[in-house]
Amino acid sequence: MNTPFKMKPGRGNMPKTGNGLPTPLRQDNGIELTERYTKGVKTLKKKREEGKTDTGLNIDKTTGFATAKPYEKSFVTNKETKGASIMGGDNKTMATASSYGQGREVENLRKKFVSDSTSTMNRRNRSAELYNATSGGTKPDNLSSGQISSLVKLNKAKRTR
Amino acid sequence: MKKVICIIVFLVFNSYVQAQKLTKDFLVGTWASDTVQIDFSIINKNELNVVSFSYLTGNYFKILGYQFDKNNFYLNTLHEPNDWEALGKFIVVDQDTMVANYVSDSPGPVIYKRLINKK
Question: Which of A88, B47, B49, B57 is the most exposed place for a label (fewest CB within 10 A)?
């Protein structure tokens, strides 16, 4: 287009260049780790060396990354008696239900098992995520928004924006 | 007849012992545990090249060093995102299995299975 004058960047509706990039384009994740975070990393390292890590977590030997241990209990039904039981990781019976009451007792036991296993695994997963965030298992740049929120709540990080 | 049997037994035993030796040739290929994959290859005629990757974190390990000692193989790795150093002592279980005893902040054994034999 041939016009009598040229508009410079930043004038009128022309986009600005360089200066004032919108925040989503920034490379940092908007947090600053505090001294409490550094101290926590050291404490967890010491605990690991003493073998005092959370019993619900598996710490990978090659990377130090934590994952939740699988739920060890199982729900077993008996076809003959139509009863059911919850078995522990060591194969010991922890709770039983008979077929009494048209299977209501079995259904209640099943509900208890589902509820317990779900809450335990949720807790372990949260614990693993927090461990990876606070033990130095995740690079600060790679922290998820959930991990960042946890660190901020624990005063282990400060939001910079 | 006795001599022949003795020779056969010796040859079978010898080949068995040879198969269990942990050498560069034995390692060449791809090995994997539940969380780690290691690729061993020979470059520049006789140099062992090691590339290791964590399925768990999606990061490559920095290879700090390796060493053959008697019938063991030692591999020293660094997981850079969290500066996690681990020294693994590898021993052969059979042709396609090795156990690495790790010395790190969380020590213990890890079983590696051969995925691909490049030979």
Answer: B47
In-domain check, residue B87:
yes
How many whole angstroms separate alpha carbon A126 and alpha carbon A146? Answer: 10
**119 residues of chain B, pLDDT tens digit each:** 566 555 555 455 455 544 568 888 899 999 999 999 999 999 988 899 999 999 988 889 999 999 998 889 999 999 888 788 899 999 999 989 999 999 887 788 999 999 876 55
DSSP per residue over A2-60, as a string? Answer: --SS-PPTTSTTSPP-SSS--GGG-SS-SEEE-HHHHHHHHHHHHHHHTT---TTEEE-
| pTM score | 0.67
The count of domains in chain B is: 1
d(Cα A77, Cα A96) in Å, to the nearest integer?
Answer: 10
H/E run at residue A154: none
- What interface predicted TM-score (ipTM) does this complex get? 0.75
Q: Is residue A92 part of a domain?
A: no
Contact A135, B82 (CB under 8 A): yes
Q: With an 8 Å Cβ cutoff, are B86 and A48 in contact?
A: no
- Chain centroid to Cα A2, Å, comes to 59
Number of domains in chain A: 1
* Domain span holding position B74: 22-116
CATH number (domain holding residue B89): 2.40.128
CB contact residues (below 8 A), chain B span 23-62, against chain A: 35-36, 54, 56-57, 59, 61
In a domain, residue B65? The reply is yes
Whose structure tokens read 């048209």? Answer: A102
Helix, strand or coil, per DSSP, at residue B5: helix
B17 touches chain A (CB under 8 A): no
